[in-house]
Amino acid sequence: STQSTGHSLFSIIQMMRVRMQPRASCFVNNLYARRPSYFTGCLLRRGSSQAASQQNNIPPLIQNKIGANLHMKKNHPLFLIKSLIHSYFSRISSSGSTPNLVSPLPQFSICDDLSPKVSVKQNFDDLLIPQSHESRLSQHSYFFDQDSLLRTHTSAHQSDLLRRGEKAFLVTGDVYRRDTVDATHYPIFHQMEGVRTLALPLVDEKHKDAQEVERQLTVALEKELKSVLEGLMEEMFGKTQVRWVDAYFPFTLPSWEMEIFFQGSWLEVLGCGLVQVPIMSASGRGSERGWAFGLGLERLAMIKFDIPDIRLFWSEDPRFLTQFTLPPSSSPFPSPQDIAKLGKFKAYSKFPVCKKDLSFWVSSSSAFHENDFFELVREEGGDLVENVELIDTFSQPSKSRKSFCYRIHYRSMDRNLTNDEINQIQSNVRDKVASKLNLELR
Length: 442
Prior knowledge:
Helix content is about 30%, strand content about 25%. The chain is of the alpha+beta class and about 450 residues long. It has a 7-stranded mixed sheet with strand order 1-4-5-9-8-7-6, with helices on both faces. A 4-stranded antiparallel sheet has the order 11-12-10-13. The model is unreliable at about 1-25 and about 30-50 (pLDDT under 50).
């Protein structure tokens, strides 16, 4: 058999291009990059008082996977991608061979095991994310209580590490977001953030303009950042076409997204920018400047190894894991050559999909958010749920309500599903839509 999920890599790439893709990094096309549009009504209804009444909304599916740390499991594709990046930064910090460096890069501190439980201050306030931003809502994030949550990005540790005096660091960890259900999205995924800082040059007020010195440093840091990241993409994928797109993120200014030309299309792979000066100042580093980037390990692994479904990263099937087993080595990092020898993922099974439709009414006064529905489906179906797609809507103005019809795709990656078990799951979903979401079924 040639496919485990029925998705070709090309179809996955198309999904990555078309959807909002919050999985690329803590920067790229995520909650922090896009401005409120579809959710404006929700923001107006709930406003900044949402945090004050926040309750624990972490379901068992998520609780049971906290601390899994897939990025620390040897012979796992996420570990290999992480190690490849660590190896690259270790080498360029030692050699200084990267073009356009403002000054030699320091060795990057490695932070792999920071707790995913963070404060609202760490996750939002320290990063200048507005109080009214949708990412602070329970529809998008997993909260323990009004003051703490599961980090939605590894940037949550940036200010703490800056206060600690770190000059350069790489933070890798699991991050958590409520989101859509498909082959490229999962409520837990893994990110890496990189930060590099350096001191502003001393200015002789008689001969130099301080603003001009800072402008020159900003230009130089941009060149350095882009040069470093272009080198990383070459390390990851070989010679590849790269382009830079101007972007907006609350915590960097200016900001960019990097896209690579892959299988005939431009694909976003990371976001980056110069750390906002107020963040540096609040961290006690006002006389320094720096750059930061963020990327998603799953995104890069899916591209590099042709892994067609994000659920596979959680598989314990030896047929998956043995494909990423490297020979023993004394080196702390697997070599790029050894990783390249692994080749592409070879699908080991193909099982049929089972599709079930579900329709319900939503009144105009309802606070319904589709992430609440996605979360409910995940709770009942777990990793048997491959995709949830909205296939039809229509309005009934006379009753001030709108109908939504979703199609749920059930498919196991390692066995056939029975009609009885899927019918039971679908029945449970219908019951919960009515009882938990207070929606009228059709």
